[in-house]
Amino acid sequence: MNAVLQAQGLGKKYGRRWALRECTLDIPAGRVVGLVGPNGAGKTTLLKLASGQLEPTSGGITVLDGRPAATPAQLARVGFVAQDTPVYAGLTVSDHLRLGARLNSRWDAAMAGERIARLGLIPAHRAGKLSGGQRAQLALTLGLAKRPELLILDEPVASLDPLARREFLQGLMEATVEHEFSVVLSSHLVSDLERVCDFLVVLVGSRVQVAGEVDTLLATHHRLTGPRREPVRLAADQHVVSESHTDRQSTFVIRADAPIHDSAWTVTQLSLEDLVLAYMDKHEVRR
Questions:
Q1: FRET partner for 116 with CA separation of 20 to 30 A, picked from 139, 144, 195, 227?
Q2: What is the pLDDT of residues 130-160, one digit of tens each?
Q3: What region holds the ABC transporter domain (predicted)?
């Protein structure tokens, strides 16, 4: 298996509104994938399609070489942690572990118990009495103890404070190293993705804007600053992602595989956040 997720012309429509449109995507196995975009971009829809919670309106999607949630065996291979890290407020930590064991054929009770102990969670405490960070860690434990081949996390740390976010992401990275599974992590917090992800998907306005290895994307995107110039005067292999102009100066973010040799330009590298914002700007211009 070379790909953990493949989509071809994938779309989902609610009434007259497309939540996801013409999504073609190929995500290799063994990666920690950051799915980033503004609120309403279609991130949750894509993840629910990948986990089998929704059926496509158009196109198709394959996860782990099969149709999402097509069989109990296929369902067992994918873990899902939804927004706001949902747990049952009236159940204790131990109740959650027992429920996980009953519902998941691949359940790793030893791992779940060891992780709960290491986190300092009291088994008899009800989830509703835990802090936001503790609930997030409990939800992550339930997802990990399922022993999935793919773990999908939909904005799991958006409501947490910076320390709780860091602890959650640290625990996730330790688990990926130890158990070697693939991860798709949705977030609009690029700083979090920058710490943990090696593959990036930017989703804006219900469409995939760019996808690829983080190192490759950063190496092939550049900011050009120089005398005012129209984009048609750029080299043919320099694809404009976003642009801004003053009376005398132009600034472009471009994608190009070859080095930039035009001495009129000051060339600077982008951060991951710069790259994401450039693709969002591109979408705003086209709207």
A1: 195
A2: 999 999 999 999 999 999 999 999 998 887 8
A3: 5-230
In angstroms, what CA-CA distances link 240 with 116, 213, 261, 265, 284? Answer: 49, 19, 16, 14, 14
Model pLDDT for residues 213-266, shown as the tens digit of each residue: 999 999 999 999 999 999 988 988 999 999 999 999 999 999 998 888 888 899
Number of domains in the chain: 2
192 and 223 in one domain?
no
Q: Quick count: other Cβ atoms within 10 Å of Cβ 213?
A: 13
Q: Which two tokens stand for residue 171?
A: 């625990």
Helix (H, G, I), strand (E, B) or coil at 121: coil
Nearest alpha-carbon partner for 23 in 1, 2, 43:
43
Residues 170 and 107 in one domain: yes
Report pLDDT digits (tens) over 19-35: 999 999 999 999 999 99
Task: Give CA torsion, residues 279, 281, 284, 286, to 10 deg.
Answer: -70
